[in-house]
Amino acid sequence: MDAVKLSFANVRTAAKFLNNQLAFYGGVQNQVNEATDCAAKQVTRLKAQISGVEDTDITAAIVDMNQARQLQETALTAESRRPRTTLFDYLR
């Protein structure tokens, strides 16, 4: 009878150990699943970002760039034509 009680104690100890291991590896599996989901979401976000860059309307971008260049040249020309007089010039 003592051998049976000892066997049951050993089985309980083994069952507790296996339950602990199951809990540990279940937690690890959850972490792996979360990391996989996070990586998949980031891949999707980066693909959308790449698509936004690659799908730029080249014609519109060139027109915008030319307009910006013309505005810059106009502003520089206006600045260069501005009088450079100071209060000291009027005091002479």
Would you mind describing this structure in some detail?
It is a single chain. The protein is an all-alpha fold. It has one domain (2-91). Helix content is 89%, strand content 0%. It is built from 3 helices and no strands. The protein has helices at 2-54, 58-81, 87-91. The longest helix has 53 residues, at 2-54. It starts with a helix and ends with a helix. 0% of the residues are buried.
Q: Which keywords apply here?
A:
elongated; single chain; 0% strand; 92 residues; 3 helices
Q: What does the average pLDDT come to?
A: 91
Can you write the helix and strand succession as a string?
Answer: HHH
Helix tally?
3
Give the biggest beta sheet.
none
Radius of gyration: 38 Å
- Measured as a percent range, the helix fraction is over 70%
Q: What number of domains?
A: 1
Number of extended strands: 0
Percentage of residues in DSSP E strands? under 5%
Oligomer: single chain
Please tell me what the overall shape is: elongated
Structural class comes to mainly alpha
The span between the termini is 123 Å
Q: Report low-confidence residues grouped into runs of 5 or more.
A: none
